[in-house]
């Protein structure tokens, strides 16, 4: 009996040559890496095995498949042995062995991939060309890829290195961590870096630039974090605003929504085919056509195929061209190309061909977690989804039941297929993945369509893109809420940190799973309608066509989602109009903190007529986006006045992001004598976006709105040279509204030079007292004595101090109310003093009866 089973298995191997060859190839790559096989040992056994395979392929049916597997295994092992840097004396790995990474190295190389954000740093992948250990006097040719971490939180930094740039690095090379990919040969953290020249593939550079431009367009059309989620869904780009949401998607098993997938590629190909579908559709009387007419019809089919292939290639690059995107793009291209070549698409053969080609280009891709999750998830869906569909068929009797059954079956299949890899990569196991996917996956098609519409309309008319963004906000907000709710459920997920998980255990899991599938297929083949052999039989008899009922349900669901979004948009707009308060001025003072621990101020002024004035932006773009988008309606994408009081990073970082996300009416600052990189980027953003800019000087008066006046009290002209120029020349403004006068001291409260000049100017101007004074002080430092004299001069009723510091997030404190006499520099007659320590917010509001103040939720 066992011999018969063995004979049957060998005969089946012969019927699947591509899958057999791909399996052997992949096994050879992994064995060669684990065993560190030298390349010189493999040519002779490889030649003998290949000759035996050629001779026996037609003569001995039972051994042909086995010999093909062994030949592919040896070829894969030889390919891996040649690519393994541990056998290459010119690799960076050999340099680390000899130098042990102790001395400073000078590395010359090229940025081979677009930058990515990891934590609070930019990660660059640099392909090394030369290395020097004596400061650049003598160079040694080396090759290999290293990961370089540089400061910055901008993906598209015009003053930082980008794809294709030739860079010169000075720093210490250290070995990579054990969990990094084997092709990553070294790490270099925060080196001295200079860009020598621009290069790389111009087409790839153009597509990468387009990717960042489309992400910026979506960020302008939508508030955060909904914009960050749509950017991740459509472009696979992880922006800083997505970082707080990423753990929620991981623990709920919905991380596939924010990475490239085959479903997105298939949908894109269908969208490209839609305009030409009537020309390419076959008609019942096509058999009557003359040969020339048939050739003309074939030309339309090939044109459609070419457009789909170009769209898939472009979208793969726009998605980052990572392993998951390349896998989805390659399989999508095979799906489009197969009918034009007169072949039937077989998913197992497509998976085998994809793995074979991708590992031929880069054998180390097998150790990439993105490739593993994408490949195993796809294989698991094809193999296991039919198994889970059978017991769920009763749910199809309910409305949209077929879509529910599909979502549940696909989620369970993918989760079982990727369970060990997910646990090893993210150290988490999700128990709410089926529920979370049922709640969110049906909206994926709608979100992709709306994202494409925003990008296309944004190139023609930005207001149209904003209008589509209003519709997209509701499903995006729902997805975020559903994922957050599932993550908060009891026993939603389990951390595997500290568990004795290892690669051998993962292999044992897959061996048991494969054995169970084999036994199940032997006992009941009908359950596995998508098995490799059944797939070949089906491919040889008929083409797979989508069920009409299933397509109709999907179309009705998509139309219902759009109609619901329109109704919600109408209801939200009507509610906002009815509840709008146009009686006074609302000033909100924020003390914002970045994830790294630095703090800084931001001031939002909401005028009675609907205008907005934003002064400073805090130290973090994501934090400012959260507080702004929480207080502004979703259609508010315009800021009338954008003011930078000082070029310090604690004020400028968030404002830089606001300038790129909102339409700005006017940008104002006090100018800088010696601009740094951050201020140069600020001015460049204003110039490239066509934002009107004005430099303010002492004595100017602006009118932001009706019955509202903005007086410039500092700095004078010319600017002061020397000392702390950022604070000596900081903007000092006075905001005058009916019944309220606010003195915005800002960072000038820490400058003795600026305070002395202000005292002189205030004495000579003989203006009335100010009701509120807003100042920024550094924790642990006493302000100059002139600060107390200034408070006595203006005699305010309320003092609000924004305490800036650099501390860990755990050390952040709540706002503090300071009593009279607790601060030596606070005059005794001052009624109220508030210290704001991040995260905190304070509001001052006017009405027909006067003005009021109080703490608010940050």
Characteristics of this structure?
8-stranded mixed beta sheet; 25 strands; 858 residues
Describe the protein.
- This protein is an alpha/beta fold and 858 residues long.
- It has 27 helices and 25 strands.
- The strands form four sheets. The protein has an eight-stranded mixed sheet, covered by helices on one side. An eight-stranded mixed sheet has the order 16-17-18-19-20-21-23-22. Strands 1, 2, 3, 4, 5, 6 and 7 form a seven-stranded mixed sheet that branches.
- Strand 10 (586-593) and strand 11 form a beta hairpin.
- Helix 15 runs antiparallel to helix 19.
- The longest helix is centred in the middle third of the chain and has 31 residues, at 548-578.
- The chain is globular, with a radius of gyration of 32 Å.
């Amino acid at each position: 009996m066992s011999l018969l089973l063995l004979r049957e298995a060998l005969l089946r191997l012969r019927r699947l040559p591509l899958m057999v060859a791909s399996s052997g190839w992949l096994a050879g790559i992994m064995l060669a890496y684990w065993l560190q096989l030298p390349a010189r040992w493999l040519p002779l056994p490889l030649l003998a095995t290949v000759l035996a395979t050629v001779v026996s392929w037609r003569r001995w049916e039972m051994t042909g498949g086995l010999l093909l597997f062994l030949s592919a295994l040896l070829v894969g092992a030889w390919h891996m042995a040649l690519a393994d840097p541990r056998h290459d004396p010119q690799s960076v790995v050999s340099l680390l062995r000899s130098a042990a990474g102790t001395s400073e190295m000078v590395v010359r190389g090229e940025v081979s991939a677009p930058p990515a954000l990891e934590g609070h740093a930019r990660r660059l992948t640099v392909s090394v060309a030369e290395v020097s250990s004596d400061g650049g006097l003598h160079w040694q040719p080396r090759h290999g890829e290293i990961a370089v971490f540089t400061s910055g939180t901008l993906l598209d930094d015009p003053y930082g290195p980008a794809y294709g740039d030739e860079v010169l690095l000075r720093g210490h090379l250290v070995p990579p961590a054990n969990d990094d990919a084997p092709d990553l040969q070294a790490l270099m953290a925060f080196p001295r870096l200079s860009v020598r020249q621009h290069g790389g593939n111009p087409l790839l550079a153009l597509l990468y630039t387009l990717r960042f431009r489309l992400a910026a367009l979506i960020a302008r059309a939508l508030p955060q974090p909904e914009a960050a989620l749509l950017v991740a869904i459509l472009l696979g780009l992880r922006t800083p605003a997505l970082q707080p949401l990423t753990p929620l998607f991981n623990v709920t098993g919905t991380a596939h929504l924010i990475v490239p997938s085959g479903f997105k590629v298939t949908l894109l190909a269908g969208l490209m085919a839609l305009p030409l579908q009537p020309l390419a559709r076959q008609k019942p009387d096509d058999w009557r056509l003359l040969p020339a007419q048939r050739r003309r019809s074939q030309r339309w089919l090939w044109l459609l195929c070419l457009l789909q292939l170009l769209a898939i290639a472009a979208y793969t690059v726009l998605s980052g061209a990572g392993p998951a995107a390349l896998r989805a793009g390659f399989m999508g291209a095979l799906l489009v190309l197969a009918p034009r070549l007169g072949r039937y698409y077989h998913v197992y053969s497509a998976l085998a061909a994809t793995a074979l080609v991708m590992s031929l280009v880069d054998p180390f891709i097998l150790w990439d977690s993105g490739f593993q999750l994408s490949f195993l998830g796809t294989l698991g869906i094809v193999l296991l989804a039919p198994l889970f569909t059978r017991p769920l068929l009763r749910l199809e009797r309910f409305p949209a039941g077929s879509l529910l059954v599909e979502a549940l079956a696909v989620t369970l299949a993918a989760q079982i297929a990727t369970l060990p890899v997910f646990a090893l990569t993210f150290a988490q196991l999700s128990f709410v993945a089926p529920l979370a996917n049922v709640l969110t996956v049906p909206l994926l098609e709608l979100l992709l369509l709306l994202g494409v519409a925003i990008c296309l309309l944004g190139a023609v008319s930005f207001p149209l893109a904003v209008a589509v963004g209003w519709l997209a906000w509701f499903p995006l907000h729902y997805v975020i809420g559903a994922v957050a709710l599932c993550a908060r459920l009891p026993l939603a997920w389990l951390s595997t940190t500290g568990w004795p998980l290892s690669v051998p255990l993962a292999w044992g899991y897959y061996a048991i799973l494969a054995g169970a599938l084999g036994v199940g297929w032997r006992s009941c083949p009908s359950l596995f309608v998508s098995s490799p052999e059944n797939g070949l039989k089906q491919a040889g008899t008929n083409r797979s066509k989508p069920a009409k009922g299933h397509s109709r349900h999907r179309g009705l669901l998509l139309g219902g989602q759009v109609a619901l979004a329109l109704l919600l948009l109408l209801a939200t707009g009507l509610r906002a109009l009815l509840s709008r308060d146009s009686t006074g001025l609302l000033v909100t003072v924020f003390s914002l903190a970045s994830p790294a621990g630095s703090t800084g101020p931001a001031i939002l002024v909401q005028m009675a007529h609907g205008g907005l004035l934003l002064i400073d932006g805090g130290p973090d773009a994501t934090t400012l986006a959260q507080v702004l988008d929480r207080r502004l309606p979703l259609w508010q994408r315009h800021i009338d006045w954008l003011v930078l009081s000082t070029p310090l990073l604690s004020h400028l970082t968030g404002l830089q992001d606001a300038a790129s996300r909102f339409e700005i009416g006017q940008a104002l600052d006090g100018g800088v004598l010696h601009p740094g990189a951050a201020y140069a980027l600020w001015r460049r953003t204003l110039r490239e976006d066509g934002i009107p800019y004005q430099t303010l000087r002492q004595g100017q008066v602006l009118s932001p709105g009706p019955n509202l006046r903005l007086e410039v009290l500092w700095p004078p002209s010319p600017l002061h040279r020397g000392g702390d120029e950022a604070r000596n020349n900081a903007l000092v403004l006075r905001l005058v509204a009916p019944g309220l006068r606010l003195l915005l001291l800002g960072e000038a409260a820490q400058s003795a030079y600026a305070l002395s000049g202000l005292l002189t100017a205030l004495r000579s101007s003989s203006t009335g007292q100010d009701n509120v004074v807003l100042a920024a002080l550094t924790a642990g430092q006493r302000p100059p004595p002139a600060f107390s004299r200034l408070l006595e001069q203006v005699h305010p009723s309320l003092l609000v101090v924004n305490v800036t510091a650099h501390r860990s997030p755990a050390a952040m404190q709540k706002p503090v109310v300071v009593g009279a006499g607790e601060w030596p520099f606070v005059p005794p007659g001052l009624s109220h003093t508030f210290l704001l320590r991040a995260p905190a917010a304070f509001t001052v509001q006017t009405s027909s009866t006067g003005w009021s103040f109080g703490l608010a939720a940050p």
